[in-house]
Every structure is written in C-alpha cells, then in structure tokens.
C-alpha cells in the first residue's frame, strides 16, 4: 500500500511534470472508482493543472480549483507516460486500468493511468471543489511529518490502544501504514503491542525520533524516482516489514510475524519485545 513517502513522491512528480499542462480528456474505465457524481469528470476537461499535493495518503491534483483526489488503497497505483494511447479504454474491462487522464492531445501528449491489481478493489477517486469534502480527508488526524515532538506526545497521551494501532489509524495521525509502522517500531525498539498512553518520556522521544527518521529518509529516497520504480525503492529500504524468517539486520535474530484476517506485521523479538515472540493467533489456532 502506498504510504506518505510514496504519495509525496507521486505528488512531486506531478508538480514537476503535470503542473501547467491542460487536462484534455479523462477516460473512465471503471465507474465504481468514482465516489462523486457532481461535478462530472468531464468538467476537468480544459482545466490546467495548477498544483499537486497530498493529505495523509490521499493524492490531490488541483485543476484550476477543481480537485481530482485519489486514494490508491492497497493495490492501486499511478502510472505516468510521456505519450498516452489515444484509444479510449473499454468501460468495464477486466484489466487493471480504472481511469486515464490525458495532459495533452490524446496519442501525442503525456498523462497518467490509475490502475489497481487484484480482485479486491479499494482504489477511489473524488472530484470536488474542496478536498475537505472527501470524508476520509475531513476525518484525518495530524500529518505524521508535520507534528512537533510535543504535539506527537499529546496524540499518544491517554490512549489505551496498542502502538501499532495508533500509528496506522488515520484519524489519530495520518500518512503511516502497515509497512512504515513496522519500520518505525523496530527503529524505536518498541513492541507493537505496547500501550500508547503508557510510554515513558524516553520511549516517546525514541518513537518520535524513529518516526521522523524513517519517514524523512523514505521521502528522500522516493522523491525524484519515476513512479515505476517507487515500489522497488520502498521494498529496498525495509528492514523488518515483509522479511519474515530473515535475520534482523541489527541483531541477527529471526524476524517474526503476527497475522490477522487480511494483513500481517513483522517485528524482531530481540530488538523489540525482550526476546519474547508475540502470540500469533493464526498459528495458535492451527496448533489446537
């Protein structure tokens, strides 16, 4: 799933290559991806891209005051091309293409596709005059990279949830997902199951420092990359996430996993949980 660093990199790419260009045509291959009806997507035609940014993990393309807001969800992606195919995609096709934006004469100019792999669809697009009209944006907590240390501590104070939950709940703080939360907790040497509101002052300092380090380093690596290489760049910088069974690069212990219904997180027992493996409910059920 694209998280804050990848979405920031995509926004930067659009600022460099899309701002100043005119939307000449929008092709909708999957109507289900559109979460708004009014204004229609055709109202983007003829508008100039004036800015591109993000709100948490939402990508925001400003077209003369009309915003194309994109949430890539778990398997969505933005694919830039210097020359887009002029042939409109077939609506309702079974391929990954959901929406295409032409930023020049079709077949001659650049643009981008929004695609989504797999059968579980979550990619979403809104066309709004104010990004706050998107319910997910209106509900966002403070941006993970915009908080001061004291603001971060205030977010954690009194919370009874586990750290993993707090870091990944967008209404609490925005921008961090499953992968980078694993990396942040590993660098901070904290258990994913630690209670957020019970951290010592030193642990809060360590967690805030880890959050800043992991995210800023990832943004630095990602910005300037072509969209096609961003996923590989993200994977190359991960030390524990998706590395179950591999040695921890810090201590050499085996990276462990805890699985849930549709996702999993990874951690190092030696670095994070005092050498004690966390209970994996999926494995426990299999052993009964």
Description:
The model is unreliable at 283-288 (pLDDT under 50). The radius of gyration is 20 Å and the shape is elongated. The chain has two domains: 4-138, Alpha-Beta Barrel (N-terminal domain of MutM-like DNA repair proteins), CATH 3.20.190; 149-287, Orthogonal Bundle (Helicase, Ruva Protein, domain 3), CATH 1.10.8. It has helices spanning 4-17, 135-138, 149-156, 163-168, 178-188, 201-222, 227-236, 269-272, 281-287; strands spanning 25-28, 49-55, 58-63, 66-71, 76-81, 97-102, 111-116, 124-128, 256-259, 264-267. It has nine helices and ten strands. The protein has a four-stranded antiparallel beta sheet with strand order 1-6-7-5, with no helix packed on it. A four-stranded antiparallel beta sheet has the order 2-3-4-8, with helices on one face. The protein is α+β, with helices and mostly antiparallel strands. A hairpin with a 2-residue loop joins strand 3 and strand 4. Helix 1 packs parallel to helix 6, helix 1 (4-17) runs antiparallel to helix 7 and helix 3 (149-156) crosses helix 6. Residues 239-273 form the FPG-type domain. Keywords: DNA damage, DNA repair, DNA-binding, Endonuclease, Glycosidase, Hydrolase, Lyase, Metal-binding, Multifunctional enzyme, Nuclease, Zinc, Zinc-finger. Residues 2-93 form the Formamidopyrimidine-DNA glycosylase catalytic domain.
Which CATH class of the largest domain? Mainly Alpha
The number of helices is 9
Rounded to the nearest angstrom, the distance between the terminal CA atoms is 33 Å
SSE series: HEEEEEEEEHHHHHHEEHH
Q: Which whole number gives the mean pLDDT? A: 93
| Class inferred from helices and paired strands | alpha+beta
Unreliable stretches covering 5 or more consecutive residues: 283-288
